[in-house]
Amino acid sequence: MNEKLLEIKNLTIRYHNQKTAVEDVSFNVPQQSIVAIVGESGSGKSTLIRSIIGLMTSGGTIESGEIWFQEKNLVTYSNQEMHEIRGNKISMIFQDGGSYLDSKKKIGYQFVETIRSHLKISKIAAREKAIEMLKQLCLCDAERVMNAYPFMLSGGMCQRVAIAMGMTMNPQLLLADEPTSALDVTIQAQVVRQMAELRNDYGTTILLVTHNMGVAAYLADYVVVMKAGQLVEWGACDQIIDHPQDPYTRQLLSAVPELKVGCVG
Amino acid sequence: MDKQVKTILKLESVSKQYRLEKNQNLIAVNEVSLNLYQGERLAIVGESGCGKSTLGKLVTCIEKVSDGKIYFKGKDISKLQRGQLRELRQELQIIFQDPFNVFSPRMKIGAFLNEPFINYKKMNKNTAREESKRMLEAVELDQSYLDKFPHQLSGGELQRVVIARAMALNPSLIVCDEVTSALDVSIQKQIIELLTKIHQETGMTNLFISHDLALVQSFCDRVVVMYLGNIVEVMKSDELGHTAHHPYTQELLNSVFSVHGDRKKEINVLFGEPPSPMNRSGGCPFVKRCVMACEKCLLKMPELKKCKDNHLIACHRLEKCEIK
Q1: ipTM for the predicted complex
Q2: Which residue in the set A241, A254, A261 is minimally distant from B253, CB to CB?
Q3: Does domain B7-91+169-318 have CATH number 2.40.340.10?
Q4: pTM for the complete prediction?
Q5: How many interface pairs between A and B have CB atoms less than 8 angstroms apart?
Q6: In chain A, at which residue ranges do the beta strands (DSSP E only) sit?
Q7: Where are the domains of chain B?
Q8: Among all residues of chain A, which has the CA nearest to that of B189?
Q9: What is the mean pLDDT of residues B19-23?
Q10: Distance between terminal CA atoms of chain A?
């Protein structure tokens, strides 16, 4: 087994005055693997992934536990130190690519700004880098995308711009919070393929949160199943999907309608 | 399906256009003709913006058709006025995607369920309450829910209440517009089981709008695939996996990630996005994304033709091919 890139140890997260959102969760993410966290809404999967990068919604605090990334405990990091990690070593994409972008500024402006917050390069160089990134992510008319406002692009395009932005600094770890849930099936297929290519071409490790079991089964090497803040089971994808041990996992899998496909064409 | 079965709903080249500024027209539904038989569960699938929800709204007379006619039980309902519409709505109900938006936050579930009876003056309040209890039982909720407020219920429970109310007046046709897409998979399964049970008990006709092909296959009898306001293929749902021939349907099928499917399979991505419904060219709507497109596809719009029993297809390339 590959080296661990990220290790989560006994993590407990609580929102104030409420019950725990994540309780005593431990698992690890090997280098260059894709790990999917699955579960129903309210199972704490989004809270968990956001806590890694220190972006919990208001009121969430890590009560106990450790998040080890490249042999450093991120829980002990100050805001300043986290700021250096974010975008450089760990980046994140969200469910709705469109709302992640500022609707009043052109894509190009935002992209250049993002790059220049990490690298001390000129605007022109940053713009070139941005176009190069967009082209690599199969947005062939990159120039048009750069000059467009987010509302001029479709949901799938926005999501790919967000992925391009996240990938600019070539992070070791990409956190993806429901990246395909707001998209149509055909666009979902495009984004899923994109993420598979990221891992193959750049060796990026991806931690993915999804409620789509099909996407998790296709993409992931390891699957983590969560329920009501607790880790139900985790392990290699084949094992979890084909031989689930926990009744909850079995229940979750049996709820997914399967497409009966004969010989197509 | 038995040929003798009564047609409950008939759409005759129904179109819906929305007028935008600068004399631009957005064609949401383009000359759709369709028959819906008594007791059938018909699915409409397609990407967002393909006009499937608009079609649902046209059928329930929430939107007025721009062109064409809709016959419900042999009667043209496309030009009805308010009073007649009110009568019609006892027979025709619609359930929407997000149950959270359906409820008034200050209204108790009981009051919500009583409404159809009071509204149509079917009974007084006390008997309506008794009837509401019975309806809640039908959707597997107990009567304590009558005195709860919507915020106390989960999404799945709320959707059950919505289904209960839609069923209250025993409509003959129910339109389900993405009823499960706001819900978790396990809740989705429960709702589909409930709808299946209701269908078995009442034999109600169901127009089921969804984007989930696997779900549609497990629940419905026939599937209509729409693309950019046009019907591109109609077939039986159990044949969806192996007899779907339209290139768009095949792309849709390819895009589905199956849990127990082949994880090594290459994803054949359908490049590009659906074109804008505003500037429509004369040819096949799918031509720009189609791998099989030829010159004819650019020039002429294909008609929906029968290629075998219970299978209609709109594609130039497949017109001549014989499907055995």
Answers
A1: 0.79
A2: A261
A3: no
A4: 0.85
A5: 116
A6: 4-15, 20-30, 34-38, 60-69, 72-73, 90-93, 173-177, 205-210, 222-227, 230-236
A7: 7-91+169-318
A8: A255
A9: 77
A10: 40
